[in-house]
Amino acid sequence: MPTAAPLTSTTIDGAIDHLQTTYPKAVSVDDREGYGGIIVDSAQLLDVARVIRDELGFDYLSSATAVDYLGAGDHMEMVYHAYRSSGGGALVFKAQTERDHAEIPSLVSVWRGADFQEREAWDLYGIHFPGHPNLKRILMWEGFHGHPMRKDWREAYYEEEQKPFDSRWPGGHVHRAEEKNVFGKNVSYPREIDLSRLMDTSESAVYQSLGLGVDVERVMDKDGFETNELVVNMGPHHPSTHGVFRMVLTVDGETVTSLEPVMGYLHRNHEKIGERNTYLHNIPFTDRLDYISSMGNNHGYVLAVEQLLSLGRRYNEPTYRCEVLRVLMVELSRIVNHLWAIGFWLNDIGAFFTPVLYFIQERERILDFFEAVAGSRMMCNYMRFGGLFGDLPERIKSVSNLTNDRARDYNTIQFLTEMVSERIPRTIDELEQLLTQNEILIERSVGVGVLSAEDAINYSAAGPLLRGSGVPYDIRRADPYSIYDELDFDVAVEDAGDMYARYRVRVKELRESVRILRQLLPRLEATEGQSIWADGKPGAYAPRVPLGEAYGRVENGKGELGYYIVSAGGKSGTSNPWRYHVRAPSFINLTPMGIMSQGYKVADIVGILGSIDIVLGETDR
Amino acid sequence: MYGTGLAKGLMLTLRHFVDSYIDDIRYGFRKYSHSVDNFGIRQGTQTKGVITVQYPDEKVAVPERFRFVPFLIVEDEDHPTRAGKDWCTSCGICAKVCPPQCIWIVRGNDPDTGRPVPEPEAFFIDIDICMNCGYCAEYCPFDAIKMDHDYELASYDRTTHHIHDKERLSKPNSYWRSIAPTRAYEEMLARGTWEHKDAAKEARRGQSSSRRSAPRPAAKAAPAPAVKEAQPTPEPAVSAAPVAEGSTPWSEDDAKREERRRKALERKARRAAKRGG
After folding, report:
1. Which pTM value belongs to this model?
2. Which CATH code is given to the segment(s) A12-125?
3. Among residues A67, A333, A395, B86, which is most buried (max CB within 10 A)?
4. Which residue in the set A165, A374, A439 is minimally distant from B5, CB to CB?
């Protein structure tokens, strides 16, 4: 093993230099046009990763994902984005392998946060990860044949490689999707799958296929206690799982000894759809990820594509008013998100629906505002590359042919001012009066579901889950985007790492969001009349996106939401992304769910899941 | 003291409970009156207590930008030169920007010359697939496709009702101006005229704009779309009078439509055969 060169600089470039001098053969700069970071020889990936974490201090693995370069080098590539938990930009490193026997060493021993992401890469791309403790499919089911994200894999409703489909215009052959359902024709089973075995009705077969190492047929006695270790299946249709989500618990009496999340019931291969789509098509699809905070989803995606667009010549930065409006929308949706998160978490621990209904009264007003500005309450589809769908309307409600058309007719700015200065703070006060000192809540949540700061970082936890464990990491401060660097707010943080700490972090963030909104109101007034488009007219529907890669990330309500986009530039001759990956906080935040649950009671599991705050639309994608 | 936090929280619940009842008592039977004023106050921001909108008896009006399933704009019946004519020129941009690809357009061709004409022969939107994103309306260069406000589209049979054809999609220009007067006004400013871009161009050229098509015969009576009392528009440069009940100038005869579609498909098949051979 080569000797480590002394670390001279703390910048990203310094880190890359350090790696190149330490591993001159294994590390090379990625000099493809529009790309950055380094390419690491996969034989030495583990060593390099340890240096990156321990010597260079990139202790937080944000994203690990695969790209299939079929027809453009014919190789597979794993792309890793590592950050320092103290803040700053990303160190991007990649490892390449051939397509046929794709194999890259697992980094789970370095960053536990790679666990689910490598399983996803195995599932969707068929890359094998030697050294992974539990390399199984995660979004598709065991027994599924093929790896759907590979470029040569075609889905059941396949029409054409890329949208827009030629059949739509000028031919206009209208058909229903189900007429083209090829189910039965495009499905093949691996030889070892015996269809008659899939009919097995006994419960034990279900659990044994999970390989938990517990014999569910045999009753086992533990020393000293007359309890049996058994496997309990929670979900997928359990009201506490916030959707179709399943947890397999191994319990010793009432105490949970291990927990494994099972997901994918809502999987629709969002990323494959995204690669068939044009860049513009993807914006409304991002709404459907974390459907509670669609504005934030839009923001991350347009930031990523704008990074790519800025490589080209014909690109204008968004105007200041556009940025103000974006931050305004994103902070409002953060408030919506946290009101939901706290409300549903309370449902989970037993305060059934009274608190959540009080909170969503204010949420409804915020959605009224979204509806008036963007046209839809939840699926906002508001942001565009370099601009927005539209400026604020003069009035919230306007004439329509329905009765009651004068109800809720407000001046927009007045409505917003009243909301920010009176109603939202009042709702937060009520929320705190109801909950913060509530003895039942405290007893249920203090000291439950503890996640230490080291584990939170190592498991790539993000958002309130990370900050509730005492890590003051907020992308708005750590790696500022938009106009956050000129806004005055504090990063909410609590040290305890339990459910109550996460609740406190969310309440603090609600107050900080109100603080940000208060600073935005005068900015809105000052930019009145300014266009939301840099050149005064809306952007093109098929922008030319230059060759390259980009990773756009935002601090969404649930944590770090990142989009990794690869553009094939003019090569494909179209306006479709070559690779479209979503780093979903709801998905990666489930990685530490197992260790957070160990040793707690079955009734606490429901609350712990609620305190992570997941949305299955984003988890399963 | 243990339990004070709990008691404080319960006080809040009590307050919400009492507020709701006080409000109900204050309004008494008036709350059933559907009066805009009562509804507006009770649904306003200053109201106390928890007040529910009694859908479908009560409805909250949607804002202008509200978007739900697109419709096509056709010229009003009383338009002097272009009555019943589509605004759509079948340029296909809406089909291209549609994220779920739910728009199918048969481009119009002149039956004699075979050259494309700026009018769609057939137009379909599968509302089961439509995700209400609003791109078609946003990127349409002719302001010919718009997002509707009518969200009550439930039906008993999706196989027969959920692919909207041109007849079902078409609504008069005055309807659009009635549901979204501000936006229609903004669009007028951007276009520079209340008229369709092409009509304005032709008028400037001083040509007869009725060169291509004679006004269509009024079709048989069909249930009129939701054009109730069309409201006055801010700048009615062209009269936008409400359409009389029972007449649907923008609809076509079913048989005729089928005939046109059949012809279009035949042409398409011939073209495909030619390409293949």
Report:
1. 0.83
2. 3.30.460.80
3. A333
4. A439
